């Protein structure tokens, strides 16, 4: 298990645009992607967290957060139906999004952000993402909605140098959007 040093939001590199990864994938990228996924899985293990006080629990990790400005991200969480949501995506692009919005009632968090940034972040409720799937070694078109769409958008934002709090309304952080789905 790689003990990644997470890049925090005071570093300029987190604000840079990442570059596409060339295909076919190199061994180096394949093992990096798998290490990122493993990092997330372990970060959700209570025993592991007890022994590694510097690790915070996370559901998504983008390559710029480990100091590599390349278009690679990992997502891992168990949803309310006990289903494992596990993705390692290369060069992900959002190709369509719903006009319907959603947001997390408790706001978003980020492994790169230690400070609290209270407020709602409204994001499209449904998205379609085109990417190369590192785990299955093929092109995929994913249709994501609700929580998984939020996580994917948060991680894809990292590849563009955007952080979650950039989306919070500065004047009215808890502004209500009519019709948006609370998650
Ligand atoms: Zn983040």
Order of adjacent strands in the largest pleated sheet: 1-2-3-6-7
Uncertain spans: none
Determine Rg (CA atoms, Å).
16 Å
The major sheet is characterized as: 5 strands, antiparallel
Alpha-beta content class: alpha+beta
Cofactors and ligands: zinc ion
**CATH class bucket:** Alpha Beta
Q: Would you count the extended β strands for me?
A: 8
Annotated CATH topology: Peptide Deformylase
**What's the CATH H-level homologous superfamily?**
Peptide deformylase
Proportion in β-strands: 25-35%
User: Helix-strand pattern, N to C?
Assistant: HHEEEEEEEHE
- Give the integer mean of the pLDDT values: 96
Tell me the CATH architecture: Alpha-Beta Complex
Q: Please, how many domains?
A: 1
Helix content: 10-25%
**Number of helices, counting only DSSP H or I runs of 4 residues or more:** 3
Tertiary shape = globular
What's the end-to-end separation, in Å?
Answer: 32 Å
What features would you describe in this structure?
The protein is α+β, with helices and mostly antiparallel strands and 183 residues long. The protein has one domain (12-182): Peptide Deformylase (Alpha-Beta Complex), CATH 3.90.45.10. 20% of the residues lie in helices and 26% in strands. It has helices at 27-43, 46-51, 147-159; strands spanning 60-62, 72-78, 84-97, 101-103, 123-124, 126-133, 138-145, 181-182. The strands form two sheets. The protein has a five-stranded antiparallel β-sheet with strand order 1-2-3-6-7. Strand 6 and strand 7 (138-145) form a beta hairpin. The chain is globular. It binds zinc ion (ZN). Zinc ion binds next to helix 3.
